[in-house]
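1st attempt posting a full record on here, be nice pls
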Amino acid sequence: MRAIEWSYWLVFFGLALACGGAGTTPDKTASDQAEQRDSPAGAARSDPHSFARPDEAVVRHLDLDITVDFESQRIYGEAVLSIDNLAQASQLYLDSRDLDVSRVSLDNEGETTFRFGEEDPVLGRPLVIDIQPQTRAVHVEYSSRPQAAAVQWLAPEQTAGGEHPFLFTQSQAILARTWIPLQDTPAVRMTYSATVRVPRELMALMSAENPTQLSTDGVYHFTMPQAIPSYLMALAVGDVAFGELGPKSGVYAEPALLDRAVAEFQDIEAMIAATEELYGPYQWGRYDVLVLPPSFPFGGMENPRLTFATPTIIAGDRSLVSLIAHELAHSWSGNLVTNSNWDDFWLNEGFTVYLEQRIMEAVYGRDYSEMLAILARQELDNTLEELGPESRDTWLHLDLAGRDPDDGMTDIAYNKGYFLLRALEEAAGRQSWDDFLKSYFDHFAFQSIDTEKFVAYLKAELPKNAPQALEKVDIEAWIYGPNLPETAPRPTSPAFEKVDQYLAQWQSTGTLDTAVPAQWSTHEWLHFLRHLPSPLASEKMANLDEAFQLSQSGNSEILAAWLQAAIENQYEPAMPALEHFLTTVGRRKFLKPLYTALAKTPEGKERGRKIYAKARGGYHSVSAATIDEILGWEE
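the predicted structure (as tokens):
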């Protein structure tokens, strides 16, 4: 089906809602998990977060033809799934959540029957389609619903320009199924093409080969020739313009932000060159960045060819571009070699933090990257304290069965994973470790793997160049044990030592030497604010605020750290800045600690709930779900 009339969909949805969906009957076996089997697709049958059965029939290519309807807040059209029926199966299992399906047909065989299985509040419903042994393509005519969790529909007033609406998707971890019917597991990789119809005044972009100019008819065509997992499916539609950074990179942003974004991201070409020198060629064509409106729930999302980024990293001095280094690093760790199961999320993020640190060192120097490493250790220590050192959630290899995989997106995967790889580097020697990593990315390129496969490769290959390295690092304790081994690396920084001296001097004398912090980087400020004594008297807080204008900081990282200190020390003059920040920024990294700090006292929780009542409608579902839990919020 192409270009379906919306009136047809209105008729269908009325019938579907009344009848429970076309041909819908509960499928009792859809959620049964079978033992892992070898197949070209990988082992998604053991993925507790997917109903798919790719060892029976696996999707190899997706062809989308969709319309983005801002008025109804629906994405509708047709998904054509090219499959490889490995087991001559009679059914194809797809993942879906909050999707309506009107018709399914098979190439050369006409319309076929389908049904939805029982609904799970996190996983959604299996979509079970009857196929034939010879089936090679399945056509699904469908629509998303307005509440689709991946999709955020922004009104014009929620954008920088204020004139046009905006849409963006966030598919990680298992939200692709809320706007496309597919096998939503990282174990399945597929190529895709798409035709997307949008209002003529808006540009459409995807995790694919992208336009740089507005289409005259509002129709855009996309191709992703490299096979990717479903969580990297991404779509954005809005009033955006393009600025070139170099031969391999550029930036998209709303016109009001474009010049600032181009200036902020000038070092991207140097980052690409540094990473290629370390770990081999960039294999995705171009590397572009899209700066989204502030409701985007993450700092960045590594959608291949088009990183989605929060505007909160635009500080005016390139001091927060380590986030871009992180997302670029995913082009090797995560996008090129992918965790096959969300229990192994550290394979994506731990490797990426390690590469991020190496990129930052190559471009800005070792002293700079070591400050980042210390901040990462501070964040990890806080997470370990919050979870409890013996918590099962402090293992690198997680156990997320029966839970939302979003629960695993903590500093454990990111920073404990990083420190394991740093420990291996220190044990093997940098050159031997770099040689191993390059061979690892080459060997598993465009594959999805699990922790066991990584460990087996590590034990087979690293000793060839570093025979004693694995004797110095207890791999099993790191991966399959709680907390941090006592031998975990502890980075040091002369710059932070000077910050500590300044803080001690201020505490002992009460005198603020404003000339010293004027030279600090963002990282030095974060170290200072994280180590403020607690409790700190209001007059002391006021002295800092007056001297350095912290409540008015235009640097989101510094402001968030200051506001957390303000909450903890009940510094009332910063509360208007807190409310403004929480109602204009949707990045979960900032929201979670601030609302958590507010929720620690009855007065703070009441304040937090009042602010949240105003702010919640502007948050993406990923952020809202986290804050709902913190505040005990019920709609």
